[in-house]
Amino acid sequence: MKKFIIAIVLIACNSLLAQVQFEAKVSKTTIGLNERLRIDFVMNMDGDNFTQPTFKGFKVIAGPVKQVSESWANKKKVYKKEYSYYLLPIKKGNLRIKQAMVEYEGKVYKTSPVKVNVTARVEK
Fold first, then answer.
1. Which segment of the chain is annotated as a signal peptide (predicted)?
2. Is pLDDT of 47 > 50?
């Protein structure tokens, strides 16, 4: 009975470690009207059917650029898939980039919306 309980605990711990992570990362949260913003949608699994959000208030000037990497760290395989975009704001204010979506093993995962404050033009 002890071996059975230990096996269940190990399986539960292993499944917790292998949770799907899918997030949006921005280069800055405050930018000038003449600055570019980079946004990366990063996942730790090989998801399918990536759906980009609408970039209301922004013009997409590059992207999507897809990058996939696999490596080993501490005897564990580390997988990363990333979709990157470069955006140029077209208006000032507090803009919101909505959720991106991806499917993995029949489930849909969504990023959290991202808020970006766009200020007046910045002198370089």
1. 1-18
2. yes
